[in-house]
Design brief:
Strand order of the largest sheet: 1-9-8-4-5-6-7
CATH architecture: Roll
CATH topology: C8orf32 fold
Helix content: 40-55%
Radius of gyration: 21 Å
Structural class: alpha+beta
Distance between the termini: 31 Å
CATH class: Alpha Beta
Oligomer: single chain
């Protein structure tokens, strides 16, 4: 995935996010100051409502346990909005296949991948779909295939040519996992910046038993998101839209 389409706007977004967090912190500090003068009875009641220090930590709402803020416009948001509409359009093709009507080869292939995943549970489901998609697509740059620097394809377009780059693998896995029965709230498409090599890279993150696992076109193994080395989270995409990670800000729990 080309750097110029993402990194160019990231700095501006980070400045805005930092300002928002700064003013939010000031406002929070102002609101908390009066609590110092609360009567003892009110303090005891307030403290009693807090969870115990030994309370079990729940899973992070987003992969990498970092804060992510919604973005309504920009290159990534616009591409994700467009690809979601193309995915919706491909649903009609898949419905015809399920009804045993006209069915292109790419749709047959996609439904076979979904069926393989649906026949498994948990980690096995993730592993089967990760492997099947990785094997179905030949790594090919957008410039070589489409003659442009960056082109995102919906699953059937990718499986028609059997070629694609990282985001095409990730989009196919994202849609296949949901079709195979993984809850939408447990699936994300994430974009990171790899330091080695210096490039942006798209993957899928799936949450199993509270832990986020990464499905990558470069590996058949499922890796815990927090174990990734040399990867800086940039964006997270799901059914609610696009969000941008705020570096260094630990996320809350859900």
């Amino acid at each position: 995935m080309p750097l110029h389409s993402i990194m160019g706007k990231l700095g501006c977004w980070l400045i805005v996010a930092a300002l928002v967090l700064q003013f939010s912190a000031r406002g929070l500090a102002t609101e908390l100051q009066p609590a110092r003068s609360l009567p003892s009875a009110q303090k005891q009641h307030m403290y009693a409502s807090l969870p115990p220090s030994s309370a079990k930590r729940l899973s992070s709402r987003e992969p990498f346990n970092e804060v992510a803020v919604p973005i309504a416009s920009g290159d990534v948001s616009d591409k994700w909005r467009l690809i979601r509409s193309e995915i919706d359009a491909e649903t009609a093709v898949l419905d015809r296949c399920r009804a045993e009507q006209e069915c292109p080869e790419a749709a047959h292939m996609f439904l076979d991948i979904v069926a393989q995943g649906a026949s498994r549970d948990g980690l096995a489901r993730l592993g089967v779909i990760n492997r099947a998609v990785n094997l179905a697509i030949v790594p090919t740059s957008d410039m070589d295939q489409w003659g442009v620097a960056d082109h995102w394809s919906a699953p059937l377009e990718t499986l028609t040519t059997r070629r694609g780059d990282c985001e095409d693998y990730a989009i196919a896995k994202y849609v296949a996992l949901i079709a195979a029965g993984v809850a939408k709230e447990d699936i994300r498409l994430v974009i990171v910046h790899d330091r080695f090599p210096q490039e942006d890279h798209a993957m899928v993150a799936a949450r199993i038993d509270g832990a986020w696992l990464i499905l990558d076109n470069r590996s058949f193994a499922l890796a815990p998101a927090e174990k990734l080395r040399g990867a800086v989270p940039l964006y997270v995409l799901d059914g609610t839209g696009a969000k941008m990670f705020v570096p260094g800000m630990a996320a809350g729990i859900s």
